[in-house]
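Revision sheet: structure tokens.
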Amino acid sequence: MTLHVDQEMWDHLEQALTGASSWFSVYNALQPLVPQGAEERYRPLIWAFAFDLLGPEEVERREREGSAFGAMMEFGEEGRIPPKLAEVPEGTTEVWAEAYEAISEPRLRARLGDLLWEAHVEPRPDLKARSAVEALVELSETEGWESMESADGLVRALELSQRLSDQQLAQQVIVRMGSLIREEMAVEEQRPGIPFTLLRALVDLPGSMRPGDLGELIGLCEECYGQDTFQLDTAIDLRTQLVSPDERRELRQRQVQIWRRRAADADGILRLSFLRNALDLARTHGLMAEAEEMRVELAQIAEEDLGLKTISSEIQVSNEEIERYVSSFVYPEDWRKSLQRFALHGPPGGEPEKLDEDVSKQMQDHPFQFLITKMVLDPDTGIPIFEASDEASHRRAASAQQRMFAMRLWGMFAMQILQRIESECGRPGHEELTEFFSTELIDASNAERIAEALEFWWDHKVDQSAHILAPRLEAVIREMARLVGLPIVREPVANRPGRVRGLGEILDGLKGHLATPGWHAYFTSLLADPLGLNLRNVISHGLRSEIGADDAALMIHVACHLAMLTQSKGSDPGQD
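Predicted:
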């Protein structure tokens, strides 16, 4: 398809280009100038300035787009402006080429020359790339062009000159980058993103291409931004790539000390965060002595030192609704049937697919809380146990939190149900309870202790109940793994003795062997997931002075469910 290009289009394009401070401002200025009915003819020119230039570090997005240019806007599953460069309609690149030849203006030649190079438009796309590099350098010297656009443009110009294998052109870009860094140091407003964007590109060059004053330029940034620990940390990171291994180790030690000093001057959660930064640096760069010191210091921070505030919410449910719900589990004078009904209710939090849908909706409805790094603290020790910094880790933390909330809610009802079973059905004898829990999976010894744990719970000795249950539940789960053919021990290797596999590892291997994935997720969260209730580890490691009645009730619930795995054969005892 051939699109007609007339003088009016050139006039409007030049008008939009005049005084524009960014690619987006060209796009915004050109759109209102399009005459009614001429949208299709103008679309290629509008799209040219709607592309988002992707930096070299955006590897994944570049691979997805198939070029260095991505969409300015994306909406829904397929909606985007503009389309992928390789998918622009026929005639689009011809309009770009015609505009490139017709208008000698750096804003236009920088963008269109680059697009024509990326789209491999003949003849001689390399000449258009060279023209784009020269225009990008000129733009960085143009008054009114945004400084961040200049920095990003120079990084792109350096990349293009390297792809063209033009060392002379690359040196022109490198010299201009150094000049812009020095110019930025003289600006009263601190804008560290501009010099650091340029410095990263210069540091990544082969040693023979780096400017001789690169170390000095980094030093200027250290001096200018040294009061900001984050910026000083970035400057040191850059410098480590220029020095010998011994000097690099000294710089990493300096980084650790900088964060430690910052932590010493901070309180609460900020102190914790800065110490975590120091620990991560020490651990990443093999500073084992410093890492151990950080661990000791972190362990000495008590939860009350963090200055945290409790945020709570209420869900109002009528007493009548609660009564109907609890009563549905209780069959008067039939404690067995009641415990069976109790055992098969769940899993709290539902199936992973539904829970993931809920988390996705939460992330969509409240995106801001998932854009900032979130530190998850162990509720018993106050020690950081997980850092959510990207979409995957935020989703992991949110999913764990959702399931744990559901478990907490079910724990409150589980207490009432167990109390009602005793009061309305009568407490069974010890031998009867032991028989109830004795199955092909649960041997007589474990069944007897589980029965004793339930009796302790009914006697309001819930801490004792939980401490009896934790190892017995683990023993039953290990037996389940053995029966399905999973290894539960590690063989001795060389001079290293054999040992049992951890409960978390065994539960991971049992995926697909429980009733549903939701039950597997519930067992894991309750007993062995650090982001869940993790009760087996909490109890075994003595991390809590006393276990509550709700947590112990959840463990009884799991014990009853394990007893049903061979008793009920999948039938619902709540239905006759």
